[in-house]
Structure formats: C-alpha cells, structure tokens
Amino acid sequence: MLEKRAPKAPDARQLTNEWNLKVYAGVISGLMAFTVRPFPGLPSVGHAIVVFLYCAINLIFCFTNLEFNKPSNFAARFGWMSTGNIVLACFLGLKNTPLALFASFSYDGLNIFHQLVGYTAVAQMVFHAICYMKWEDMKNNWGKILEPENWEGVAAGFAMVVLMMGFLRRLGYEIFYISHIIGVILTLVFLGLHRPYWVWKICIASLFAACIWAIDRAIRAWRLIFNFVDNRATLQALPNGGVKLISSKQLAWASPGSHCFVWIPGIRPFETHPFTIVSNTSSGLELIMKSHSGFTKSAYNYAVSNPGASLRVSFDGPYGSFPDLARYDRIVLIAGGSGATFTFGLAATVLDSLGPDSTQFVDFIWAVKTKENLVWFSEQIAKLKTHASHVSLSLHVTSDTEGICSDETLVSDTEISPNIVSMAEITEKSDSDESPPSTDEKLQARPAKVNEMHTAHGVKYEKLRAEAMIGEAIQATKSDGRVLIASCGPETLMKAVSAAATRYMTPDGPSLDIHCESFGW
C-alpha cells in the first residue's frame, strides 16, 4: 500500500523567486499606471517623457561643438536643425507610414509628434533668420539679404508659417487641409532653392522629403482611383444632424473601428474627409457622420433634399490601429456622442469572431445628449442585444429628461428637414412593399419608435460615471485575466477614463491596457 506523503514545504529559493516575481510585477504595473496617466496638454505622461527627450536632444544638437563668438555659427546651426526637423515632420506626417511595417503604429498616433516637430522646425527657422540678420548687420552688409537665394529662404520661412497654422482645423477642416498642402509644396521647393548646391546638402534633404511626401500622395491617389470603379453610395439623413453612408462595395482589408478618407465628388470634388468605419461587409461599407459645417453639412443637406439618391464615391484607407482584441478576456468600450462609431466597430469585430466556447465579454457604455441620437445606431444596438451572454449594454442620455418626445420638438425637426427618417423606418421600408409613409405619418410614428427602443434597451437618464463602471468590470474579471479599456469621444471623457483606469492597475489585479481614440486626424 502506497504511503501518502505530506506536501513538501517550499524552499528558500522558491520563496525568493516568487517574491522577486511579485516585485517585478509591481514595478511594471506601477510604471504602466504612471505612464498612461493624463498629462496637462498631452494625452499621457508617456507622451510627456518622449516630448522631453526630443526637446533635450534638440537643445544638445543646437549648442554642442559650437563657437559662441559668431552669430553666423548660430545661424548655420539653427538652419541645419530646422532642415532636419522639416524632413522628420514630413516623415511623421505620412499617412502610409513605414513604421507600420515594424509595429502597430498608425499616422494618427504619431500626429501629436508630427505637430511638435513642425513647431520646433518653425522656431528654429525664426532663430536662424534672427542670427543671420544680426551677423549681416555686424558686417554692415544688408545687401546680401537681398540676394535671390536669401529671398527664397524668406519665402520658405513664410510657407512654414502657413504650415504652422494647423490650429485652423478647429475652425474648418477645409481651410486646414488646403493651407497644409500649399504650405508643404512651397516650403520644400523654396528650401531647396535657398541652398541649391549639392555640396551644401540642403537641397538633398529637401528632395528626400519631397519624394517621400509625393510617394505617400501617389499611394493615396491610387487607392481613390481603384475604389472609385463601380462604387456608389446612398446618404440617409438621421435625427439631430446625423448622416448614414452606405456604399455598394466593400473596402478591402478594412475592419470596423478603423477609419478611411471619403471622397464624394458630387458634393466636394477636391476634398477627402476621414470617418470611422462602423461596418464593412460584402454588401458594402457603412459610415455614420455628424454634420457640423463644410463637407458634413453639405452631405446632410444633400441627404435631406435627395432621399434615396446615390452618388459616386471612393475611399482611401483603411487607417488606424488598435490592440488585438482576441487577447483580452474582457473589453470595456466607453464612448461619448459620435465617438460610438469607433466603439460600435470594435464591438462588431469582437462579436463576429466569437467561437462557440468563447468566454470573452464586452461592456458597452455609450453616453449621448439627446434621446434621438440613439436612433443613429439602432441596428448595432439590436445586434448587441442578441449577444446578451457576452455583452453588457449601458446607454446614458445626459441632457433629455425621461419621457415621450414632445410633438413640438418633432414638428420643428421635421420642418427643417422633412425627409429625415429613423433607422427603424428605413428597415421597415426595406421589408415592405407598401408606399412610403407621409410626413404626418412619420410624426406620429417616431415618438413611439424612439421610446419603444428606450424601453427595450434600458436607457438611463443620468450622467455617465466612468470610474464606477470601470471598477465593476474589473472586479468581475479574474486576477489573472486581461482587460482592455477603449474609449472615444470628448477629450474630458477620455481623460476621465484614463485617470479611472490607472487607479485599478495593481499587481494583484487583472492586466489592464488602455486605448483612447482621439480623432486626431
């Protein structure tokens, strides 16, 4: 008969290894929690560290091995540094960045560094001009500044100031886009002419930057031409200024949650605009956009005035990167307003990949100001409800009060845009051969449909409390599990999500990753 032995007590080496592992896990967890914390003016502390290192390197290169007794030395050094940063800014601004071949980088994640490098190049250009003028003033040789090569340098400087006006994107994307294209071309042309001799190397740097920029534009142009063939789109107006675009062709290699640039020549022939992909199936690509001004306002007006009409359309993309969703046991998706275009896309990707034995779970949290915004994604919400065992759905209306929409509100909406229909109405029309309902019938039907959806999906008329909901999701996850917290929406919401998530990064808890989609295109 076999004798049972008592379990062997762990020896000192085993205890030491376990202790070291806990210390290592604590240090890593602490560093991750520290680097993802929000930082004033920047997305996170990690971004701030990179910015600090970049600025320190620039200062070292500007003043190392430099004779301080001549302003001309400063002028030359600042000129070289500005040229180098112009090339780096062009590289970081590429939509088809080569960095994507080596890591999960996308141009939108590099955009903040693209802006920083651009501003640095402009500042160094200003110092270059000041030091050069000081040097010529000391020699009483102002006539040299009037030489053609130096005038071309002045022109390059003014073109760089045009490039620096990236803040104009807040006033209008069209103004920003056009000024940026013109600024890039003029800067690189006049920079090369400023010092045109090969021995000075400036024209080589200018030519290199122009080549990589031109190649990137050529790739984008080819995609637009390729996706333009036999591709049409229908625009449908949604309540509160929403527009739903459905194309006739699927966009290759595009997954929901990524984004693409949309070209509709029938609305704006010389503009492309970025939008997040909500769905991309064999029946076509689906986007939802909120009208503000410019292109989106024109698209909304067209949808209202021409219901059911189709337009030629093309896409440049896909772009964007996010973590591998299959690696996580629980995924918390938090969105505010139109940021749900991103989170609905991720949710669709997760649900479409679920296997029969999958234990993956999604917490879907969405906050909107008004009740009718929920109609924008009624089909996607219904899909989430069909996966109740894998999805927890939480919808928040922050401005409206609970109850049925008033007739006065609906009448005012319809008078402005009488052709607006809800997504529920669109679905019903596609399933029925009956004639379309009149405007009066829509007025009578919409309150019931909107409130019917509210009752069915448990809409909460309260503010979104991100920290509490994140805490509940993490507490429901095993300590050895992996959790992804992804958010998209207003900057205040994403900062609140990041701050809340970092509080739950502990060595004894589940592994946490944070992804914030900032729409920084």
Automatic annotation (TrEMBL):
It is found in: Membrane. This is FAD-binding FR-type domain-containing protein. Residues 211-325 form the FAD-binding FR-type domain. It comes from the Eukaryota. It is a multi-pass membrane protein. The chain crosses the membrane at residues 21-39, 45-66, 78-96, 116-135, 171-191, 197-215, 331-351. Belongs to the ferric reductase (FRE) family. Keywords: Electron transport, Glycoprotein, Ion transport, Membrane, Oxidoreductase, Transmembrane, Transmembrane helix, Transport. Its main location: membrane. InterPro entries: FAD-bd_8 (IPR013112), FAD-bd_FR_type (IPR017927), Fe3_Rdtase_TM_dom (IPR013130), Fe_red_NAD-bd_6 (IPR013121), Ferric/Cupric_Reductase (IPR051410), FNR_nucleotide-bd (IPR039261).
